[in-house]
Amino acid sequence: MLAATLPSAEIPAHAGIGLRPEHFAQVLLERPSVPWFEVHSENFFGAGGELLSVLEQVRCDYPISLHGVGLHLGSADGLSYDHLAKLSRLVDHIEPGLVSEHLCWGAVDGRNLNELLPLPYTEEALDLMIERVLKAQEYLGRQILIENVSSYLSYRHSTIPEWEFLAALAEHSGCSLLYDVNNVYVNSVNHGFNPQEYLRAIPAHAVGEMHLAGFTRKEGLAVPLLIDTHSCRVDAEVWSLYRDAVRLLGPKPTLIEWDQDLPAFEILEEEAHLAEEIIRDYRAVLA
Hints:
This protein is of the alpha/beta class and about 290 residues long.
């Protein structure tokens, strides 16, 4: 646990920013007015070192959310307790407000594929995910959030709509959901479903966080294809879907994700301010 007195770990229902190494120095120097930051858990699994030192310093001023990309809960290889042990040590040290992972698989025969691969949405896969999430939460001693992933294929064996699968996972495992608005829109175009149907099926009480990011449109194809690149500003259609999500689900901690072709930090702040305006508009209507 950090020796310094830490601010509250609670992640507020405001717009935060995904913190990447390119912006570490600026954040430490300027201490920008950002409600919270999210980092990728695996980047800080090492014992000591500069990266962990930076996170410790940031945590002294901001709430932190830990977002994992490597646990691969749905993989046939089984649950990685080595990975969970490293995550648990980081959680104990940093005291994050939220800890999240993905609804995916990404390892087979001991080989990590470094991909967030979609599961077939079947009763068997649902039972597997419920079991894995329950074990992960028991090991960590806390609730985790599970995020819907972007995908570019679907399985003929799937018998459950993705949105019903997620809702059932939350109900039976007690996990929270990380509702990625961009991923829903990307998948709705790639697989031809109505994103509003997805949104209406998600229980508001189960959502603990939302994500916003930019996608890339693959040109020159016979059918539309969107790639979840996290390399540009949030698309207008995603902003529209986010506004609907806030209206139906209520204000949630909302993250601006940008992982490739990183812009100046000020651009990320501009995107966060746009999300904050939507949250503020919703609250103004209620008032």
